[in-house]
Amino acid sequence: MESIGVNTHWSYRGVYIDKYNDLKAKLAEAGIRYVRDHTNPASYVRAIDLYESLGIKTITITGRYKSGPGPHSLDPTQIEGELSELKAQALITVDSLEGPNEYDLEHGPDTNWVENLKNYTIVLYKTAKADEKLRNIPITAPSLTSLNAFETIGDLDPYIDYVNIHPYFGGEWPDYPGWGENGSYSINWFLNYLAPRQSPSGKRIQATETGYHNYLPNGGASEEADGKYMARTFMEFFRRGIYRTYKYELVNQNITGQEGNFGFLRADLSEKPSFRAVKNLIAILSDKGPKFEVGSLNYILNGSMDNVRQILFQKRNGDFYLAVWLEVPSFDTKTKTDLYPPAQSLLLTVQGVSKISNATLYAFNNTSDVNTASLSINNNQINFNTTDKISIIKLSS
Fold this sequence. Notes:
Layout: E1 4-7, H1 15-18, H2 20-30, E2 34-38, H3 41-54, E3 57-61, H4 79-90, E4 94-98, H5 103-106, H6 113-129, E5 139-140, H7 147-153, E6 163-165, H8 187-198, E7 205-210, H9 223-239, E8 244-247, H10 273-285, E9 299-303, E10 308-314, E11 320-326, E12 331-332, E13 337-338, E14 344-350, E15 358-364, E16 370-374, E17 381-386, E18 391-396
Parallel strand pairs: 1-2, 1-8, 2-3, 3-4, 4-5, 6-7, 7-8
Antiparallel strand pairs: 9-14, 10-11, 11-18, 12-13, 14-17, 15-16, 15-18
């Protein structure tokens, strides 16, 4: 699936370097085709290998800093050299060039960070677009972490091709309503209050970081809930029109607290439910090949529709895949326990001239494995249950 990506740190000592070949195999197993990493020679080596062996492309984070004892501030005079290095070592791997990462948090002694970040974004855009080898690579905006930062930096429309958001929800579900009058830190808040400040014209959005950690003492979610939520996050963000969503991150690092618990994989590379969730989503919905003209399916869903979400896909062989789920809490952040909301009964009716001859249900369970079953069809109608896990109904005619 083109909308799914994951953050990596190929230059980091520890699991990313020590177990690279195993991590590469896990990316292949999952079917993930996009990663996010920084510009540096160590990452380029991995990016080239991933592209040449698996076709994986990288959204490449720019941002070189001034030398000397840290903390450091951005050095826009290094942009040309940074891009020249990228062109020479890993150009073929680049899916997008991204501005500096969360500089509102990481600007250190740079008291003029707002103007410096604006200037950096302008120079990056103009330098790339003036270069014959780079001009067709899209520029993704620098990532920011707060409403104040989005308001302070303001309109970057002329110098970006994609808006950039980092929606994290603590241990709450992907479409939770947020806090306060404007629903702060809900997906609606990111889309309706933050994104328009970066792009008043409404350019497409990439969520270059999102996800859940499993460190319960500091607002995490259980691994079980993480699996449910990540599958729903990818689906919900796609449903909302977000171009691509990058989970943070591929594997747990050897760091204490929440920062060491964001991975799809544990540090020993054993699979969390979130890894199986994305692997199974991609396996069911993958349809590699050239673009084709999709058809339409005239259908309605009836029944207990509270909090029901749905997306219809089609593959090139004509089969339709209807993804349905309940966008409700699967984890209680106060008691730190998993929740099991009741299933809701739905009736799918296919209308018009379409005749459904076969229906297969792919139902994700609590650990993100998939149970497969045939569904009965009666006069083009199908009864089924929807839950807080993804269910996908394959419809063949």
